[in-house]
Design goal:
The chain contains 17 helices and twelve strands. By secondary structure, it is an alpha+beta fold.
C-alpha cells in the first residue's frame, strides 16, 4: 500500500459503509483520485464503478490540498461513514474543540471550495450532523460553492430518484439551518448572493429533470416540496444578502439593483394599472387597478387622455380574471324560487367612496347576522345592495385561492407534459386539468365559457398541486391555443374542435409578456419544465380582442402619437365637435 503513493489509506484502515461513496485518496499532483494498489489488486472488477462514483468530485483540474487537509478530509469521511453504518445517535464524532482541528475543518472547506479533489457529500453531512455553532460554521462563500458542486453532480435518472431528492433536501437544509440569520457576518454578500441564485437555479433544474422520471407519488410530492423550499429558503437567503450588501458602503451594483426594484414597486403603487406588466397574485387580489377613471368631456392633455385609455383597457382585460379570486354579488334576480331566479354573480369590484356611508358589508357571519361594517367594495350594479368590507374581503379571498371545497371554480390545477415548437410558436402542453371547485354537472365543453380556445389565462408555477395561491406568487400571462393546428380536410383539428381535448383535461398554452413598449411577445420560460405543477386562472377574455388594444394603450409613446393627429384637440374635447 505504501508503494501506491503517500497518504493512501492502508489495508488495515476501516473502510466506509457501502451506503457512503467509497473514499478516493488524494494524489499528490492533484490531478485525479487514485485507489490503493492493494485495493486494485483485490477488486479489479470494481474499479470502473468506483471511478464512475469519483468523477463528480473532480470539479477543477490542478487544485491540490495540503497533506494535513487531505488527512483531515479522510477523517471526516470516515466519521460520517461510521455514523451511517452503525446509526449512532447524537452529534458527529469530530474533535473540533481543539483549535488546530477547528482550523483544519475550515481549511478543508476552503480547499473544497477552491476545487480540491475529494468526496464533497461527506462535508455536507458532517456540517448538518455537527451542533449548530458559529465556530463550526465555515465561511458562507465556501459553503455555497461546495453545495453548488454537490448539486451539479446530482444524477437525475429515475433509479436514483430517492437518493438525489435526499441530497437536494440536505443542500436546502444547510442553507436554512446553517447560513440563514448570519447574513451580516458575510464578508462579500453581493458575490455570495450571486452564487446562491445560481444554486437555486441548479436545484430547480435538477428537480424538474428528475420529476418526469419518478413513478412513486410520494417522491413526486417530495420533489414538488423541494421547489417550494428553494423559493422560500434559498431565494430568500440570497435576497437577504442583497439587502446587507446594499447597506454597506461602495456596493453600487447591489444598490442599483435594489433601487431599480424599489422604483418599479413605487411606480406600481402610484399607478396600479401598470402592474399587469410584471403581475403577482397580490396585484390581482388588491384590485387597486380596478378603480375606473372618471370619463370626462375635456382632458387637459394628450397624456391624461392616454392614461385614461390605458386604465380602461386594463380594467376591461383583467376584470373577470380578478373575478375568479373575488367574491361575487349574491343578489337574487327575478322571482325568488321561480324559473328565472338566479344570482347576479358580478364580482364586487366597484370601489365605494371613502366618504360614503351608504354601503355596508353584507357578508354573513358564522354566528348569524351580517357584518355591517363600512364597505370598501360593492356590486357595480347600483341597485344591488351586495357589498363587502376589507377584512371580510381578505377572508373570502384566502378561501377562494386555497384548495378547500369553496375554492374558486375558475382556478384550475394541471401538470406540464412537455414543451414543443410549432409553426405558431413555442407551446406548453398541460394535462390533468381540474377545477378547484368543479361544477356538480359536468360542463358542455363545446359551449361552455370555460378555458375557451384563444382565451387569456394567468399561469402560476406551484410546488405541489392545489397549493394555495399566495400574494407573492408570480403570474405569467398565456393564450390557450389548439392542441392540433387546423389542417385542410381534417375535421377534428383547429380551434373549433379543441373542446374534446379540454373535456379530457388537456390544453396547450403559449406564454405571453409585454416588452418595454407594451407590445406582447411570445417567450419560453426555463422554470416551466416537464412535470411542473401549475395553476391556471381563467380570465374569460379572448386574446385577439383585448391584448392588441391593450398593447397600444400601454405604449409610453401613445400620447406623442396622438399629438400627431390633425384633430387631436377635438379628440380630447378641447375643440369644436
Amino acid at each position: 500500500a505504501a508503494a501506491a503513493g503517500a497518504g493512501a489509506p492502508t489495508s488495515s484502515r476501516r473502510r466506509p459503509a457501502a451506503s457512503v461513496r467509497p473514499y478516493a485518496s488524494f494524489s499528490d499532483d492533484g490531478a485525479s483520485p487514485t485507489t490503493t494498489a492493494a485495493a486494485q489488486h483485490r477488486q479489479p472488477e470494481q474499479q470502473p464503478q468506483q471511478q464512475q462514483q469519483r468523477e463528480p468530485t473532480q470539479r477543477r483540474e490542478g487544485v491540490c490540498a495540503s497533506s494535513n487537509v487531505k488527512a483531515f478530509w479522510r477523517s471526516i469521511n470516515d466519521a460520517v461513514a461510521v455514523k451511517a453504518s452503525i446509526r449512532t445517535g447524537g452529534a458527529l464524532n469530530l474533535p473540533l474543540n481543539d483549535p488546530d482541528a477547528l482550523n483544519l475543518w475550515r481549511q478543508t472547506w476552503a480547499a473544497a471550495s477552491a476545487g480540491a479533489i475529494g468526496p464533497l457529500p461527506c462535508l455536507l453531512k458532517a456540517l448538518l450532523q455537527l451542533p449548530k455553532r458559529p465556530a463550526t460554521t465555515p465561511a458562507a462563500h465556501d459553503v455555497i460553492r461546495v453545495l453548488n458542486g454537490i448539486a451539479e453532480a446530482a444524477t437525475t435518472s429515475g433509479s436514483s430518484g430517492s437518493s438525489t431528492l435526499h441530497d437536494l433536501d440536505q443542500i436546502i437544509d444547510a442553507v436554512a439551518n446553517r447560513l440563514q440569520g448570519e447574513e451580516s457576518k458575510v464578508v462579500n454578500p453581493g458575490a455570495v448572493a450571486d452564487s446562491v441564485f445560481i444554486l437555486a437555479q441548479t436545484l430547480r433544474s435538477k428537480t424538474c429533470q428528475l420529476l418526469p422520471n419518478l413513478e412513486d407519488t410520494s417522491l413526486m410530492s417530495r420533489g414538488a416540496n423541494i421547489i417550494t423550499r428553494v423559493l422560500a429558503e434559498v431565494d430568500s437567503y440570497a435576497k437577504a444578502l442583497l439587502v446587507v450588501a446594499a447597506a454597506k458602503p461602495n456596493n453600487h451594483h447591489e444598490l442599483h439593483l435594489l433601487a431599480a426594484a424599489d422604483e418599479q414597486s413605487a411606480a406600481v403603487a402610484r399607478q396600479p394599472w401598470l402592474g399587469w406588466r410584471q403581475p403577482t397574485m397580490r396585484w390581482l387580489l388588491e384590485g387597486a387597478w380596478a378603480k375606473a377613471p372618471d370619463l370626462i368631456e375635456l382632458y387637459a392633455s394628450s397624456q391624461e387622455y392616454a392614461e385614461a385609455l390605458h386604465r380602461m383597457m386594463v380594467l376591461l382585460t383583467f376584470y373577470w380574471g380578478a373575478g375568479a379570486v373575488w367574491p361575487k354579488c349574491r343578489h337574487s334576480q327575478g322571482v325568488r324560487g321561480g324559473a328565472d331566479d338566479k344570482c347576479c354573480n358580478e364580482p364586487l369590484l366597484a370601489p365605494c367612496r371613502a366618504s360614503s356611508t351608504r354601503h355596508t358589508c353584507t357578508e354573513r357571519l358564522n354566528h348569524g347576522g351580517t357584518c355591517g361594517k363600512l364597505a370598501a367594495w360593492r356590486c357595480p350594479r347600483a341597485r344591488h345592495p351586495s357589498a363587502i368590507c376589507g377584512s371580510c374581503l381578505g377572508h373570502k379571498q384566502r378561501v377562494l385561492v386555497g384548495s378547500g371545497d369553496h375554492a374558486s371554480t375558475d382556478v384550475y390545477d394541471g401538470v406540464v407534459d412537455r414543451e414543443m415548437s410549432r409553426r405558431d410558436g413555442q407551446l406548453y402542453l398541460v394535462s390533468r386539468l381540474q377545477s378547484r371547485r368543479a361544477p356538480k354537472i359536468a360542463p358542455n365543453w363545446k359551449t361552455s365559457y370555460r378555458l375557451k380556445c384563444a382565451g387569456l389565462v394567468g399561469v402560476c408555477v406551484l410546488g405541489s398541486s392545489r397549493e394555495a395561491l399566495t400574494p407573492g406568487l408570480k403570474i405569467i400571462w398565456a393564450e390557450i391555443v389548439p392542441m392540433t393546428p387546423a389542417k385542410l380536410g381534417v375535421l377534428s383539428s383547429g380551434p373549433g374542435q379543441d373542446y374534446r381535448e379540454r373535456a379530457n383535461g388537456k390544453m396547450a398554452l403559449r406564454l405571453l409578456r409585454p416588452n418595454a413598449n407594451g407590445s406582447i411577445q411570445q417567450f419560453s420560460d426555463p422554470s416551466i419544465a416537464a412535470g411542473t405543477r401549475v395553476a391556471v386562472i381563467d380570465l374569460r377574455v379572448f386574446v385577439p380582442e383585448v391584448l392588441s388594444v391593450l398593447s397600444i394603450c400601454s405604449d409610453p409613446h401613445l400620447s406623442d402619437h396622438l399629438d400627431m393627429i390633425p384633430f387631436a384637440s377635438r379628440l380630447f374635447g378641447q375643440g369644436a365637435p
